[in-house]
Amino acid sequence: MALWPYRLEAAAARLRAWAWRLRGLEAGPATAVHGGVRLRFGAGSALGARSVLYRDVNILVTGEGRFRIGRDSHLAPGAYVLVGGQTLDIGDDVAIGPGLMLFCESNDAGPQGLFRTQYRRAPVRIGSNVFIGARVTVLPGAVIEDHVVVAAHAVVGGRLASGWVYGGCPARPLRPLAAAS
Length: 181
Prior knowledge:
Protein name: Maltose O-acetyltransferase
GO molecular function: maltose O-acetyltransferase activity
Largest sheet: 8 strands, mixed
Keywords: Acyltransferase, Repeat, Transferase
Oligomer: single chain
Strand content: 35-45%
Number of helices: 1
Order of helices and strands: HEEEEEEEEEEEEEEEEEEEEEEE
Family: Belongs to the transferase hexapeptide repeat family.
InterPro entries: Hexapep, Hexapep_transf_CS, Hexapeptide_acetyltransf, Trimer_LpxA-like_sf
């Protein structure tokens, strides 16, 4: 099996990360940004060392908003991340599966019931050593503590405590994480 296509794509991804640095994004060493990534970022936004944004990831930060992805973390293909004017903080050693939908800002039902005029806006924090499965939805104000697994297709809208596997809609604790041997 030839490794050259993989090496060529890896080199191109590192070159794209370098180009984002020229535009003002803080990016650590060996950071990779694959083709098709659409990224609009605010001041103070950063990608940690060896972090990866895979193809077709969309991240939108506006106004005073900022996002940070820690070292050795990645967003798999097809992630849609709306930070808006809020803050998104993703820790170290975080693996996020394909098709993530993450919102720091979203329409909300208020007293008048007019979804188009009412919004929920709140920062989102994802701790370190977290695995988020495919097609998970994360809502404004969510906090995922360290050492958490979120099963595929879950909807996260509150605080997920450390040391658990969560799943469902809304996400609920399914079982404790197994102790490391």
